[in-house]
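Sequence, please.
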């Protein structure tokens, strides 16, 4: 009962972190309230949360976060992955490595 009271008072969706031992993977997902809830107070809180999420202020904040994330991703992509190449390792195409005369069998 205390869990229900906590959930009804705090409708902000939580994050779930699980563990899949077969794939050694930590899936995360957002836990949302049930749309099929029969409790009128629960449905009212869900509508309030949806209205808050779809408000112009929330949409503007979400757009600003996405723009900042896109700018950070573009900046990270523009920078070289490794500034120094201490060992002189290079990635070259396999086409240049194989020539018709490199695999002779005589």
């Amino acid at each position: 009962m205390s869990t229900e009271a906590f959930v009804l008072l705090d409708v902000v969706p939580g994050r779930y972190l699980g563990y899949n031992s077969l794939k050694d993977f930590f899936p995360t997902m957002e836990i949302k309230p049930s749309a099929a809830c029969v409790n009128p107070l629960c449905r009212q809180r869900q509508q309030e949360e949806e209205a808050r999420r779809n408000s112009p202020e929330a949409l503007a904040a979400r757009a600003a976060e996405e723009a900042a994330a896109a700018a950070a991703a573009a900046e990270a992509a523009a920078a070289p992955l490794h500034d120094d190449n201490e060992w002189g390792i290079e990635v070259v195409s396999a086409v240049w490595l194989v020539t018709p005369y490199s695999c002779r069998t005589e």
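The longest helix spans residues 56-78.
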